[in-house]
Specification:
The strands form five sheets. Strands 5-4-3-10-11 form a five-stranded parallel β-sheet, with helices on both faces. Strands 6-7-8-9 form a four-stranded antiparallel β-sheet. The protein has a three-stranded mixed β-sheet with strand order 13-12-14. It is α/β, with parallel strands linked by helices. The longest helix has 21 residues. The protein has three domains: about 270 residues, HUPs (Rossmann fold); about 120 residues, no CATH class; about 50 residues, no CATH class. It contains 16 helices and 16 strands.
């Protein structure tokens, strides 16, 4: 089977050949844990979860390593902790749990160091400060970085190919030159690798270094963690298109500057933006939606996941109530035809998904599949793994009372009390419960 992905680095779709089929490696930028995950965050996580599942299917789970970091040291974290009047450790522990709970609701595979079941690593930035310091020291020794006033900065002009990923470096540097440039920078585009501690910083966000007490810059965190777990060269680096510049551009510069013989990631894969009602998601516009918001409103996590996959991953995705409604209706239809046993997914399904993760196309194929094949397809997409009865009935605390009413209706029908049977059906319907009478006299039910 041939995998093809659009490689941002080359601006074209290319055949994917791992450097080592027995050790396929992928890194994706994970959350900065200061607030609940919004739908844009969720889209990225779900997209790369599908890619991870596909790689596991093609190469074997034991041959794929997926690292997705947790950024738990950052200016936004410091600010949020101060605003909430709690410690950084309290904040990051709480928000990390929220993230795990929300992503589990979306069917995202959890971190695991069990190689036989696939290795999904979730490194935390605060646990890899020594690796960051070591990489910064190599950059200084290689003439790619310099220390100034307690800061360490990367020298953009030291890398002749800076801008290779985004292709927009000159525009950015010129824009930077028109605003006030910090006095410790040699050039406007130079970016921070290490910054000194501020007086108001929580002690848990301050670390010792050769340049004084402080904390790492955001970009160096991902370079150090990806290199530590996957090596100086690895197969795929993913993330949202908003990270392409400057974050991913700076990752390339740092990583190749510290390891001159390295090309860093071979493939760069970026998912598109998410809007709400055609506008950028913003708290000021009142259209800022978190995963938790939707779950609290009763939207099933699998419905959210399905809706996120209905649009090609590289294209913009506009979120709407209709998108959610359509996703629910389509999933209901698929669960009605779902079989109990799994089998190998169809060749057409795998061919389309292997062609740059064409989820809209493969989801259209789901609607002409049935039974075991449908369940096997759904497994790679992370959907359709529930028992159909559980999907339709849910797991609410009112299940017992619903069944009692159904039993009473069955008894009424046996006694030919049709008026009472109709009354119970209508009562249940008013509560969103639909009944389906079976030939053997039993009755199944599902929630609308």
């Amino acid at each position: 089977m041939t995998l093809k992905f659009h490689n941002t680095l080359t601006r074209k779709k290319e055949e994917f050949t791992p450097m080592d089929p027995k050790n396929v490696r992928m890194y994706v930028c994970g959350p900065t844990v200061y607030a609940r995950a919004h739908l844009g965050n969720a889209r990225s996580v779900v997209v790369y979860d599908v890619l991870y599942r596909l790689l596991r299917h093609v190469y074997g789970a034991e041959h794929v390593t997926y690292a997705r970091n947790i950024t738990d040291v950052d200016d936004n974290i410091n600010k949020a902790a101060i605003e909430r009047k709690i410690t950084i450790k309290q904040l990051t522990a709480e928000v990390t749990k929220w993230f795990h709970d929300d992503m589990a609701a979306l069917g995202v595979l959890p971190a695991s160091d069990n190689k036989s079941n696939g290795m999904m690593i979730e490194p935390k930035a605060t646990e890899h400060i020594s690796q960051m310091i070591e990489m910064i020291e190599r950059l200084i020794n290689n003439g790619k970085a310099y220390a100034a006033q307690g800061h360490v900065l990367f020298s953009v002009k030291s890398m002749s190919n800076y801008g290779v990923l985004s292709g927009r470096v000159q525009e950015e540097l010129e824009a930077g030159a028109r605003v006030k440039v910090e006095g410790y920078k040699r050039d406007p585009g130079d970016f921070v690798l290490w910054k000194p501690a501020d007086a108001q910083d929580d002690p848990s966000s301050i670390f010792d270094s050769p340049w004084g007490k402080g904390r790492p810059g955001w970009h160096i965190e991902c370079s150090a963690m990806s290199t530590h777990y996957l090596g100086a060269d690895f197969d795929i680096h993913g993330g949202g298109s908003d990270l392409m510049f400057p974050h991913h551009e700076n990752e390339i510069a740092q990583s190749c500057g510290a390891n001159p013989d390295s090309h860093f990631a071979k493939f760069w894969v970026h998912n598109g933006f998410l809007t709400v009602g055609g506008e950028k998601m913003s708290k000021s516009l009142g259209n800022f939606i978190t995963v938790h918001d939707l779950l609290e409103k009763g939207v099933k996590g699998e419905v959210i996941r399905y809706a996120l996959l209905k649009t090609k991953y590289r294209e913009p995705l506009d979120w709407s109530d209709k998108l959610v409604e359509d996703a629910k209706k389509e999933l209901d239809g698929l669960y009605r035809r779902l079989g109990e046993k799994s089998a190998a997914p169809g060749d057409n399904f795998l061919e389309e998904l292997s062609d740059d993760l064409n989820t809209p196309k493969v989801m259209s194929l789901l609607h002409i599949a049935a039974g075991d094949e449908l369940k096997a397809m759904g497994k790679i997409l992370g959907i359709l793994q529930q028992d159909p009865q559980s999907w339709f009935q849910g797991s609410g605390n009112d299940d017992g009372s619903i069944q009692s009413l159904i039993d009473a209706r069955i008894a009424a029908k046996k006694g030919k009390n049709w008026a009472e049977a109709d009354r119970i059906r209508n009562e249940l319907k008013s509560k969103g419960i639909l009944l389906e009478d079976k030939p053997d006299g039993s009755t199944d039910w599902r929630k609308e």
